[in-house]
Amino acid sequence: MERVEVAAAPNGVANSRQRWKYLDKMLTRSGPFSDPDTNFGDPVIQILESRKILVIGAGGLGCEILKNLALSGFKDIHVIDMDTIDVSNLNRQFLFRQADVGRPKAEVAAEFVENRVKGVKITPYCGKIQDKDDDYYRQFHIVVCGLDSIEARRWINATLVGLVDDNADSLKPLIDGGTEGFKGQAKVILPTLTSCIECQLDMHAPRPAVPLCTLATIPRQPQHCIEWAHIMAWEEERKDDILDTDDPEHITWLYQKALKRAQEFNISGVTYSMTQGVVKNIIPAIASTNAIVAASCCNEAFKIVTSTNPFLGDGNNYMMYTGDDSVYTYTWEHLKLDDCPVCGNLAKELEVGRDATLEELVAGFADRPDSQLKKPSIRSEAKSLYIQFPPGLEEATRPNLSKKLSELVEDGEEIAVTDPAFQIAFKYKIKFTS
Amino acid sequence: MASGTTTPPVLHGPTAKEKKYDRQLRLWAASGQAALEEAHLLLVNLGSGVVGVETLKNLVLPGIGQYTILDSATVKEEDLGVNFFLDESSLGNSRGQATCKFLQELNPDVKGHFIAESVEGFISKPQSLKAYSLILVSAPIDPSILSQIQQHATETFVPLFYIHSLGFYAHFSLQLPHTWPIVDTHPDPVSTTDLRLLKPWPELLAFVKGKSAGLDDMNAHDHGHVPYLVLLLYYLEEWKKEHEGKVPSVYKEKNEFRDIVRKGMRSDNAEGGEENFEEAIAAVLKSLNEPTPTSAVKEVFNAEECKNITKDCPNFWIIASAISTFHANTSLLPLPGSLPDMKAQSSDYITLQNLYKSKARADIASVLSTVRSLEKELNRQTSIEESEVEAFCKNAGHIKLIRGRPFHVAKTGEKITWGDRAKTMVNALTDEGSLVLLYIGFLAWDLFCGGDAEKVPGTHDADGDATTLTQTARGIIAKLLTEADKELEEEELETVHEKVGQICQELARAGGAELHNISALTGGLVAQEVIKAITKQYIPVDNTCLFDGVRSVSSVLKI
Ligand SMILES: [Zn+2]
């Protein structure tokens, strides 16, 4: 396929606005709902072309987002993704081809869109969002997220909330999209002003884990047998190998173990595909849902930057989408929580039993839908109650685990909870229930 | 009965295709994928031509069999600012050819074709539409040509989509064949649970009796592992003894019953309760209901096609008729046979699961025997596969029938009529949540340009055209009110006029322009509906969907 590398359109209009004829209808004409203060025409076009925008994730949503932003007139786009391309991405991540399998997603996606849409600059970073510091994030005007990990979302959310100071430019709108099968959601967050990812955490409650005793002694479902193979059999029989869920030999081994166990208990239904699904926690994903959610996110980004129409965030800030039974959207305002540990200024009330142990409290933080902290360290106003790192401190605070909470804190006392996955402290106010 | 003695399946990893399509096969399975791969789509690509191409992108990726793009346009500079499936090398070439090529690159398993001919020329040839299993048309299109395509779709039972994407607004209507039954609707797994607690059968009751014997004297372990289903049936039998054989039916009684179950729970343990009892308590309100068929199921039973099955009618109606007989005889639908997970010993759970499975098999056998006698009676040539009857029985509570309806083709000089939907549409006019006014805006837009891309509202004079468009839209509203024989209060009418005026302003502002984001979003919606129509899985839009990108809201209307 031949490509003209130099931006030399045959009729010499490469620098004219002819290419953006359609987009310019909206950039040069006001509408019945547009902001009366908008300076339509050149001023708006200038703003759009100078705004730096960051895309987090170059997967199913990310590919769509990059394409959409490039064709919305954005010129300076950055993209972060730590993954490489897998063959199972090809059914929806349309910037990748069979020959790209194994290459970094951010790099391939940036290259592709830059080649296709002349005049746009896309800067990839192949790595983790946590590699970058505040100065890096401060350079952007808007952040659009297409991630499948709730932890990464919480991290960028807390970072953007942390950036906000008296300067108006320090407030970077965060637009976040997510999908699962035929369902998805798009939302706009104005850090410190409107409901943030942390305020909305209970909408992303993790699936309840199957109790270990069920796996160990009374499995009933094929999934129980697979989890048993995954969590217990592997540890027992192959603990020197690191389980690689992308290694077919490893999955086959787990599948066979699970199948054998299922037969012992007369349980039917264990398949290779199910084994893979359970072990890798696979979420079904299709091109159409990604297209809908990504385009909704980019539509909001475009409206925020150009003021061509009102955007989500001012009032309604959340659009939920369901497409398995007809087409249904619900657009509403998710309210900011005053006691949000990230963007609120009040400590969140935490009801606990007076006789509960510190150990139970620590374990509870992983399961509570509104905290989901896997390795929490806890300090009270007066002292360190339990600190997981470094090992020396862990050892020193470990004896507290078996103590009753009433021996360690007062009713109404504030505790601070930290977790290595997040750079902030979550504040809670203890309230004894009995 | 147990599967313990069967040999394990042959071990083989997934095929290359299964790997590539893994994430979607988890939704529509191999059967849906096979249907997709059989399909051949026609895109009649008009206007600035983005929304149709974006739709195809979402269908080429999951592996649709073939697509054909009918597009006579030549690629212009402005196309490159809105269409991703073109680049500098496409300038001056056929747009159909260029988009076809770039789409084809997405998936080597798909066959792409293009026809760089005008739609008038193409459609005038006999049989030109015959090859396609589904047709997409993007506005603007000459209304008489749209009518011809619509007529073809009606006569040949081909699903047809008509799509608008203009500025921040979008619309599509889906015309399905008049009879569109769906078995595999993929209901929420929670809603498919049918435990038949109010109509237990003897084998189940025998098991309950055995498992609940001496409940009060059981040791802690056994007491905490009695499956909740057994607990509920046990306490129901107790309840019946004191209530003249009746089960708790009203809310108050169910509450009382729940308290009885709660009293049975032991809380003198470390956990302060028992998981199986908690599960039983939680299930009382939702499981103690008489299993009545939903209105969607009744609609199928009451359909003419179900009452008058024929020698050549689709299998669906034969099975539906057999299940309707089953329901008439038992006031039950066939048991789905699945059992939710619950706290229990493995062996108890498996026994219980097998009780449900065998009951489901017995129900299927009963339906199957009716199917066989119907086939014989009607002298049908081929007999329906047992697996089809089985799949139908398992989802009998969630089948759905959609009656496809033709969408409006707005033609100058012809009145737009609403038929049996007129009254509903009048109510929608003043409903905040409905986007019927946007739909009327699109009808007015079609009337304004008559399918001529050079004459769309706002090409030169956005304000002037908005005024004309608003008048047309108000005219459509006035005729709708007359047809429905209804009036709006003056204030209401004023609000409706003001709102439709704003919509017309926004439509004229677009001047026929597609915004890439809105076309990408609409392309996602349309592709999803195409997948439902082709796989006959999930429930499609019935029959018109609107998206307002100003407010980020959508609405579905039955027109
Ligand atoms: Zn918050």
From TrEMBL, chain A:
Enzyme class: ligase
Catalytic activity: ATP + [NEDD8 protein] + [E1 NEDD8-activating enzyme]-L-cysteine = AMP + diphosphate + [E1 NEDD8-activating enzyme]-S-[NEDD8 protein]-yl-L-cysteine
EC number: 6.2.1.64
Alphabetized SUPFAM superfamilies for the sequence: Activating enzymes of the ubiquitin-like proteins
Pathway connected to this protein: Protein modification; protein neddylation
Keyword Translocase: no
SMART domains: E2_bind
Classification via CDD domains: Uba3_RUB (cd01488)
Keywords, comma-separated and alphabetical: ATP-binding, Ligase, Nucleotide-binding, Ubl conjugation pathway
Molecular-function annotations in GO: ATP binding; NEDD8 activating enzyme activity
GO biological process, one term: protein neddylation
Gene Ontology cellular component terms for the protein in this record: cytoplasm; nucleus
Domain E2 binding, chain residue ranges per copy: 350-433
Family note: Belongs to the ubiquitin-activating E1 family. UBA3 subfamily.
Function recorded in the entry: Catalytic subunit of the dimeric E1 enzyme, which activates NEDD8.
Protein name: NEDD8-activating enzyme E1 catalytic subunit
Automatic annotation (TrEMBL), chain B:
Superkingdom of the source species: Eukaryota
Pathway listed: Protein modification; protein neddylation
CC per GO annotation: cytoplasm
Start and end residues of each THIF-type NAD/FAD binding fold domain: 21-537
GO BP terms in the entry: protein neddylation
Transmembrane segments: none
Keywords: Ubl conjugation pathway
SUPFAM superfamilies named among the record's database cross-references: Activating enzymes of the ubiquitin-like proteins
UniProt cross-references to InterPro entries, sorted A to Z: APP-BP1 (IPR030667), ThiF/MoeB/HesA (IPR045886), ThiF_NAD_FAD-bd (IPR000594), Ubiquitin-activating_enz (IPR035985)
UniProt xrefs under Gene3D superfamilies: NAD(P)-binding Rossmann-like Domain
Molecular function via GO: NEDD8 activating enzyme activity
Entry's family note: Belongs to the ubiquitin-activating E1 family. ULA1 subfamily.
Function description: Regulatory subunit of the dimeric UBA3-ULA1 E1 enzyme.
Identification of the protein by name: NEDD8-activating enzyme E1 regulatory subunit
Origin species: Tothia fuscella
